[in-house]
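Could you help me review a protein record that somebody else here produced? This is what I was given.
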Amino acid sequence: MVYVNVLGAGLAGCEAAWQIAKRGVRVRLFEMKPVKMTPAHKSKDLCELICSNSLKAARVESAAGLLKEEMRRIGSLLMECADRCSVPAGGALAVDRERFSAMVTDCIRREPLIELISCEVTEIPSDSVTVVATGPLTSDALADRISLLCGASLHFFDAAAPIVTAESIDMDCAFTASRYDKGGDDAYINCPLSKDEYESFHAALVSAERAPRHDVDVQNPKVYEGCMPIEILAQRGLDTMRFGPMKPVGLRDPRTGHRPWAVLQLRSENQDRTMYNLVGFQTNLRFPEQKRVFGMIPALKNAEFVRYGVMHRNTFLDSPRLLDSSYSMRTRPELFFAGQMTGVEGYMESASSGMMAGINAVKRSKGEETVTLPAETMIGALSRYISDSSVVDFQPMGANLGILPPLTEQIRDKRMRAAAYAQRSLEALEPFIERHLK
């Protein structure tokens, strides 16, 4: 009986398993939860979102939006679930993370060709084509096996932001609005700070006590720029937060009629809007320090935290030396990798790698040639980046227009240029789907 192993039921693993099953091949999907949980995991459901509930920009005329539209057209399970579980987030696609995970879990469990096996895998199977999608929280035993197989792994660290209850937010000190009024006037709760309040907050933040870790220098951790702990960002300078997650541009405080000095935005965690996360406030502060320091923001002075921020290890491979553009090992073509460990950065980037690894695992199991999407597509560009042997200082990469081939014509207007990239991508994708993915 032909089957494919998939290790890990996060975003990449669930998408890989779904793509394999939908092509008529049986899947053995291994997931160590709930038998073994990690410090960052809270739910027993599959496909748990750890750092944020935002899947980044929604409009197709953006790198992140284009990636998601390509996934929709190929038949992504995760995009279908995300669209059905969306919550207001201005110009972004954000989801009710609990409903999203539950919906993906239900789809996986109902698919007759997927056998979900709850156990910790400590060895890489050799009995069939296998997709390793165990993510940044790969257990130590399996990480050691991967390291022996691939050589030394690279280690970064991710951090997650806190979540507070809606009823504990002081709305007398906050207002609802999206930047430049995009996406509705209630997509975000904005927590403004005056110059004095901001500078006091900054001083407290950079001096706050951080949670100790034996495997990381908590004062100067090697972290993903996209998941930079807010205290690390703050120590780079007084105004770094004001030009980052606390930027006030595009917002006007209705109480004063002016733009605030700095703003913390809160984004709804669920469709009932009973919980909100602190956007861009990933952190490794001790829990009491999070309550004390973040409570200096006027709107959060009485905030009730339902989840504090945490930092966790993130492992990725030297993919340009190890993987080809189908996400398979150059030295072991029957072994595929997917997700953040390949060096794609972001939820949907990880899912897209799982999609392509799953599709190609089926082709490999049937003795067919693997495929790589056209370079003009965001999915194809990402797979080419992580497998480009000319890349020397390999770092994780998220969807961005810079990895696409240049346009044949120069377009000065930024939005028109992004629209041209998107149009070119989707025009290249459709015939490819007909020829290779049906």
